[in-house]
Task: inverse folding
């Protein structure tokens, strides 16, 4: 569950990115994240999901180019690393957190349930923005899509779920959405958990989710939103592994840059 916001503070933005975000052109998504963190902000980078030694350093260099102040890479490789006082002090004092891509199960099994996870929830509830790309986006909700198969048609056993960071319990997120043909697994996840709004985020695309639970789309692709609030039927409980499943009355929206969606009201906010 997300931490509760103080009555005097607004929750910080959540910025899930679909992966492969622009880093050498305008880099609008990453620049906007830095701007949301404040003037010359200090940013902590968590590259735990990646096996690349330079994953954190690459974002350090980018954020410095975008006028960030101090940038710190926090490499949590073991669960006991998430109890280090120096790392917790950085998270307590920074202005924003960025979680890199890689393997979301490496993230969840290392960070989940630790003081780091609890502190991230509290700092976001108190107003600190948190962004994540690819695996770093997938882990944000309470229910994390941990893996699955490609394909347009939902099938039983097509997707696996695991606990996420719990920064929101209103959404589920899949990334690299169009590029890896993931609508089938997102529908399969929705059939397992038909209350959360499901976001399929294309590469180089982000959902800027404000404290008012309004999503604004940014980037070169689109976000597919699947709303299960009126679902009337799912055949998942009767299906054998690998069988196609039916699910009815799912509402679908596809939004592009600049368009907005109200998570609480479950409606697109398109200017007339």
Result:
């Amino acid at each position: 569950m997300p931490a509760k916001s103080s009555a005097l503070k607004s929750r910080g933005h959540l910025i899930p990115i679909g992966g492969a975000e622009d880093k050498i052109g305008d880099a609008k998504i990453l620049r906007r994240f830095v701007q949301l963190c404040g003037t010359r902000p200090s940013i902590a980078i968590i590259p735990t999901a990646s096996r690349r030694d330079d994953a954190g350093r690459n974002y350090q260099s980018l954020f410095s180019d975008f006028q960030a102040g101090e940038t710190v890479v926090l490499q949590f490789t073991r669960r006991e690393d998430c109890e280090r006082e120096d790392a917790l002090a950085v998270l307590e004092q920074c202005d924003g957190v960025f979680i890199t891509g890689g393997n979301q199960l490496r993230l969840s099994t290392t960070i989940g349930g630790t003081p780091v996870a609890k502190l991230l929830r509290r700092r976001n509830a108190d107003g600190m923005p948190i962004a994540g790309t690819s695996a770093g986006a997938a882990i944000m909700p309470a229910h994390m899509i941990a893996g699955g198969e490609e394909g347009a048609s939902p099938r039983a056993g097509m997707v696996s779920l695991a606990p996420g960071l719990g920064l929101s319990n209103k959404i589920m997120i899949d990334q690299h959405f169009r590029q890896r043909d993931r609508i089938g697994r997102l529908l399969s996840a929705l059939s397992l958990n038909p209350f959360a709004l499901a976001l399929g985020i294309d590469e180089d695309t982000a959902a800027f989710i404000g404290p008012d639970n309004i999503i604004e789309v940014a980037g070169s692709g689109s976000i597919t939103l699947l709303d299960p609030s009126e679902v009337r039927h799912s055949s998942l409980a009767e299906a054998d592994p690998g069988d196609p499943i039916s699910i009815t009355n799912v509402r679908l929206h596809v939004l592009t840059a600049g368009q907005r969606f109200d998570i609480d009201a479950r409606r697109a906010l398109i200017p007339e």
Notes: The first strand starts at residue 14 and ends at 17. The helical segments are 28-36, 55-65, 85-93, 104-111, 115-125, 135-138, 183-192. The mean pLDDT is 96. Residues 64 and 71 are 7 Å apart (CA to CA).
